[in-house]
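Example for tutorial group B:
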């Protein structure tokens, strides 16, 4: 009896990229030829990929162990934790934040798999209290797409942030309210519950 088989070709699971189907194991489960970001190729069962049991050839664990043993002196710093958290949510399906990052295709560029490279690119501009932000929230972690931001700035760059155009410029509604001295909740209700136009809501006092 034939059944529909899930095609994993081209999909990314952690550090694995699926190349092609590679037969079946003794139990009849489909195996897939995968290439790790480090270049290693290996056959992995489909179940191990889709259930998050296999996310790399083992290089990630080795690299993290090596990073922890190096004498860069930052392993207990907030800056190091920012890097480690970025790696975890983008590469590990068991991470609680995986669904919003690696699970929807957000990756970490090959260079930033190394803490030293991340520190080289982002360290000079880092200050305590800042958070790592992707300029394009649908893009991946890389020098070209990352910057440091305050928590308020990062909150405004979330996918769920409401953005509106006013006077030819698009900004988060919260930022427009702050700039114009308006109450956010009142302005939000005027637009989304009472059907006011953005121009009217942002041009009138909340009094």
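The residue assignment follows.
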């Amino acid at each position: 009896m034939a059944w529909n088989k899930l095609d994993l070709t081209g999909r990314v699971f952690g550090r694995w990229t699926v190349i092609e189907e590679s037969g079946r194991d003794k139990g009849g489960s489909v195996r897939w030829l995968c290439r790790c970001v480090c270049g290693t190729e290996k056959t992995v069962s489909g179940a191990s990929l889709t259930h998050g049991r296999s996310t790399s050839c083992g290089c990630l664990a080795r690299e993290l162990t090596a990073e922890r043993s190096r004498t860069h002196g930052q392993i207990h710093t907030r800056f190091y934790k920012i890097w480690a958290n970025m790696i975890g949510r983008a590469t590990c399906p068991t991470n609680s934040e995986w669904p919003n990052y690696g699970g929807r295709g957000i990756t970490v560029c090959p260079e930033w798999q190394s803490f030293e490279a991340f520190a080289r690119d982002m360290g000079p501009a880092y200050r305590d209290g800042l958070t790592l932000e992707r300029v394009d929230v649908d893009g991946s972690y890389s020098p070209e797409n990352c910057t440091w931001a305050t928590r308020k700035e990062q909150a405004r760059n979330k996918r769920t942030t409401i953005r509106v155009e006013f006077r030819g410029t698009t900004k988060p509604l919260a930022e427009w309210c702050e700039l114009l001295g308006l109450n956010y909740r009142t302005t939000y209700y005027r637009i989304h519950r009472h059907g006011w136009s953005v121009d009217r809501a942002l041009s009138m006092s909340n009094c």
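The longest strand covers residues 16-24. Compare this with the pattern of hydrophobic and polar residues in the output above.
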